């Protein structure tokens, strides 16, 4: 199913501090039910981690805000070879890590090789397995990834084993975000002492309670962020978070509207005006082991698929999804509207 996220917010993170909600005063307060496990872009792989990592780190590519349009980010431009295998990125000048050092092409090579290095145990390594020389590097047969070349301080070149139409999208995910080698090697746990180039930097992290992000004064987009501080409170039940939101103590419900309260919220004349709705790049599905009987039989698998009433499931979750007839969600490149 294609999922639609509905979250209660009282402001955009780009609004000036004076526009903050009553409960937040000098900071935007966000709640999550689950704790934060890591802020290392090479490791984090769930909703809470990704949303915070996105505020601390940047990549060569990104999506234009509120769209699925891919645009250069820490790259100013890129070119693709005629055979579709080699990508050359020109880096944006003057971008600094929050430790004050300027970002260079070597940092991107290090960051990508760190993700591919088996010692890192990155869940995102598979996304970059198509880079030329990645397998030899992972197997210990090469000291670096031959397909990742530093042309000069401001130019990075990546060559693939074969053309991949989704490669630029891969360069927009958190696993591709740049990190400073010296900070990774200095920190006992970089995931709890992150240093990036993002709009915010880590100010405080109290495990099991809160993460506080502070505006990065050296962020390369000079008019952003306009919010001085973000306080992420964890371990907050979504229903409790909604009550606190109504009291003005919370600005954004990170987990969205609790399903059991959705109809009530949408029928509330005041609350429904601060609901932000957007489609997710997500497809929900059931996985089965096709090597175990009776699922070895394709007819059984097809019968199981047809037995699942997708329309009823959508109705139960307040029509916040649409039945899926293919793996890709509608917003994803490659989605076929004609396929049923």
What's a quick, concise take on this entry?
This protein has 340 residues and is an alpha+beta fold. The chain is 20% helix and 21% strand. The two termini are 13 Å apart.
Write the layout of secondary structure elements.
Layout: E1 2-8, E2 28-32, H1 47-56, E3 61-63, E4 70-72, E5 75-80, E6 86-91, H2 105-116, H3 134-138, E7 148-152, E8 155-159, H4 167-170, H5 181-186, E9 200-206, E10 210-215, E11 229-234, H6 238-246, E12 252-253, H7 262-266, E13 275-283, H8 298-307, H9 310-316, E14 321-322
Parallel strand pairs: 2-11, 2-12
Antiparallel strand pairs: 1-13, 1-14, 3-4, 5-6, 6-8, 7-8, 9-10, 10-11
Query: Which fold name fills CATH's third level, the topology of the domain at 34-235?
Result: D-Maltodextrin-Binding Protein, domain 2
Q: What integer is the average pLDDT?
A: 89
Task: Please count the beta strands (DSSP E, at least 2 residues each).
Answer: 14
The value of Rg in angstroms is: 22 Å
